[in-house]
Write a structure and sequence with these properties.
Belongs to the peptidase M48 family. The chain has about 260 residues and is mainly α. It has eleven helices and five strands. The longest helix is centred in the first third of the chain and has 24 residues.
Length: about 260
């Protein structure tokens, strides 16, 4: 019996493996793209209905402009690598929400929220491109699905999402919001170390392709480090220590610069 269970689990994991663009890392995904997109649309609209959109036309236009440039870079890269199918069902949307939180996030399907509280740290379009490149990369890399899969295994023994939500429909929405770091302070630092580093990597490539100098990512994360008063030591946190993150970004800079063409 144990062998049968082990075999079934192995088959489930094998069937649920996907590959992250650029890094090529294999990841577990027990939640289908269609489930993620449906949930994202529902939760995004719910979030907007409960939030106050910014009335600052200039800042709102900047968020949409930078977001759309990152979007087009992602679409271009995925087309060049024959991976456009991974963006199937995406309906991009960029909104600026009036909130003091130092946060931004992107749901699967390209649903983005930026909080006004992060704008003093981004300072300009380049800084905002660092944030949006990073957050959109979490979605492109399917980190939300990966984290939900981890939750399904840890809390529900790997049960299908439909099985879990059949007993409690609100579970899926709560899991998604947790998985994408929505609504939490410093949500930019909410994923695992590996996922954060991966989003930094992809984000540098996408912002460079969009015409934003990836070198500005260093100064942005230095400002974030100052905001968090130096951050938490890496061994006590799920995200990279500030100094390590900046060092990793500098190491990746030569690769990112290959994609950079100023606009």
């Amino acid at each position: 019996m144990f062998k049968k269970i082990l075999l079934a689990s192995s088959l489930l994991i094998a069937a649920g493996c996907t590959t992250v663009p650029i890094t090529g890392r294999r990841q577990l995904s027990l939640v289908s793209d269609s489930e993620m997109l449906t949930l994202s649309t529902q939760e995004y609209q719910k979030t907007l209905s409960e939030s106050k959109l910014s009335s600052n036309a200039t800042q709102t236009a900047m968020v949409k402009r930078v977001g759309q440039r990152i979007q087009h870079a992602v679409e271009e890269y995925m087309a060049q690598t024959n991976n456009s199918s991974q963006l199937a069902g995406y309906q991009w949307e960029f909104n600026l929400v009036e909130d003091k939180q130092v946060n931004a996030w992107c749901m699967p399907g390209g649903k983005v929220v930026v909080y006004t509280g992060i704008l003093p740290i981004t300072q300009d379009e380049n800084g905002l491109a660092v944030v949006l490149g990073h957050e959109i990369s979490h979605a492109v890399a399917k980190h939300g699905s990966e984290r939900m899969s981890d939750q399904l295994i840890a809390q529900y023994g790997g049960a299908a999402l439909q099985t879990v939500t059949g007993a409690n429909p609100s579970v899926a929405g709560n899991m998604l919001m947790t998985a994408v770091g929505a609504g939490s302070q410093l949500g930019l630092l909410h994923f695992s170390r590996q996922q954060e580093s991966e989003a930094d990597h992809l984000g540098l490539i996408f912002m460079a392709m969009a015409g934003y100098n990836p070198q500005t990512a260093v100064s942005f994360w230095q400002r974030m480090a100052a905001q968090s008063q130096g951050g938490t030591p890496a061994f006590l946190s799920d995200h990279p220590a500030d100094a390590q993150r900046i060092a990793d970004i500098q190491r990746l800079m030569p690769e990112a610069q290959k994609y950079y063409k100023a606009r």
